Amino acid sequence: MTRRANEKLIGALRRAIGDQQLHMLYQPKVDLADGRLVRVEALVRWEDRELGTVEPSRFVPLAEEHGLIDDLTQWGLRTILRQWLDWREQGIDTQIAFNISALSLQHLDFPDLVERMCRALEVPTERLVLELTEGATQPLVKLMDTLTRFRIKGIGLAIDDFGTGYSSLMQLRQLPFTEVKIDQAFVADASQTSDCRLIIKAISDLAHGLGLTATAEGIETAEQLRLVREVGCDVGQGYLISPPIGPEALAPWKQAFTAQWRKLIADEPLALRRDVEADALGER
Ligand code: C2E
Ligand code: MG
Ligand code: MG
Predict the structure, then answer these.
(1) Residues having CB within 6 Å of any atom of ligand 1
(2) Could you tell me whether strands 22-31 and 37-48 are parallel, antiparallel, or unpaired per DSSP bridges?
(3) What 3-state class would DSSP assign to 272?
(4) pLDDT tens per residue, range 149-168
């Protein structure tokens, strides 16, 4: 992209953050044992009148480079916390996962700010999970203090896109994560190659050994769902379960999904369908 085009985009993004041109979609994550909603992941969207839809993978890095990331992070946090209150009023008490740029974590007082925002709106900190991705320039190990502060406050920490890029096994041991999100690239190829299945199982076993939740992202087919259930992943997310949806669509999705889950796993081997069997026996 030319410098001029970039400058135009940055100017437009600055206005968008202030002018409500951004909004959040939410993608459900379900318990792979029984299909129950465990949390939603908030994913930012930007529709610009002139530029059309701009993808987060394009504008989040720009916001990081041009000093807009803290504004974006704070807008996002306010939006999701208010959304949590709305859902609770509708009787949905779920966790919300929020993607956070490692740059926003560089301020030592950031955990206090997040806690104050939660307290001001009376959202329990345990309902919030922060998703972090390792970047080339911001090793997460340097953020140990900040991450520990979040955990002390009861906020969950997930390492996103694990297994590709810069993430390393050392971080799982050293940092206080609660969840490992296995990169969708492995799930995408899981039906074709046994290597990917092995990697998913190895990451999932490792996560369990360290007391963490193993989440499989990018589940698009029933076959991929079966594979990630078979290797023991705890939580699943992907277009098969639900694409990212508007906040008003969560309650209808939740209602419809119970029946859909039964259909999704109906053809699986019996050993994987413990929950269906238990249901039939009236144990649940
Ligand atoms: P991520 O956190 O790894 O999010 C998962 C991405 O995969 C999302 O793309 C989601 O829409 C997409 N996805 C979900 N299910 C499937 C599937 O079954 N198949 C495939 N192929 N894709 C699936 P999206 O929304 O474009 O977000 C891209 C990245 O942008 C995110 O990756 C995250 O790193 C970043 N991001 C999104 N929202 C925010 C935000 O509010 N703040 C920050 N700092 N980063 C954000
Ligand atoms: Mg994420
Ligand atoms: Mg991811």
Answers:
(1) 27, 42-44, 55-57, 60, 76, 99-101, 131, 133, 160-161, 184, 218-220, 238-239, 244
(2) antiparallel
(3) helix
(4) 999 999 999 999 999 887 77
Q: Are 35 and 261 in contact (CB under 8 A)?
A: yes
Atom 38 (ligand 1) nearest CA: 43
**Which of 99, 138, 157, 235 has most ligand 1 atoms within 8 Å of its beta carbon, as the pocket-test mutant?**
99
Ligand 3 centroid to Cα of residue 282, in Å, is: 37
| CB-CB neighbours of 91 under 10 Å | 8
Q: Which residues pair with 96 in a beta bridge?
A: 40, 128
Question: What domain count does the chain have?
Answer: 1
User: Which residues sit opposite 31 in a β-bridge?
Assistant: 235
Return the residue matching tokens 């379960």: 241
- Domain span at residue 71 reads 3-281
The one-character DSSP state at 247 is G
214-265 tens-digit pLDDT: 999 999 999 999 999 999 999 999 999 999 999 999 999 999 999 999 999 9
Residues 261-277 have pLDDT tens digits of 999 998 787 667 655 44
Which CATH number goes with the domain that contains 116? 3.20.20.450
27 vs 136: CA distance, rounded Å: 27
What's this model's pTM, rounded to 2 decimal places?
A: 0.94
